[in-house]
Amino acid sequence: AQGKFPAVGEILEPFASPNIVKGWMRGSHHGPLMPVSFCQARATRFDGPPRVIAAGFQLANGKFVGPNDLFDDPAFDLARQQANEIANFLRRLGPFEPHRLPLDEMEYTTMPEIAKKLAPRFKDM
Length: 125
What we know:
Elements: H1 8-12, E1 20-23, H2 24-27, E2 29-32, E3 34-35, E4 51-52, E5 55-60, E6 63-69, H3 77-92, H4 111-118
Parallel strand pairs: 3-4
Antiparallel strand pairs: 1-2, 5-6
């Protein structure tokens, strides 16, 4: 960062607003991408929400200095709070879309095979 490149703050700014990404619980659900410090990186609730850490390094006299925990900053507290609110909303939707990914995008699950097997029993409403 810096010089001819964006500043550290410019690089981190997109993480100040939690975006909804694929990859929560077994890669089969949408969830908010939450910027967290190294010590908050353990994902426990429904194996998430999806988290991102930022390790900053500096090159000084030909040696790396760091890592510096860039999301260990109260400036990202609101983003974490918003990510948790989004996570709560998505979880309340239950095991359906839009929280769950579409069947053709699901990973690590037998759900697509089960839905295919049950398809003859579905009726249009």
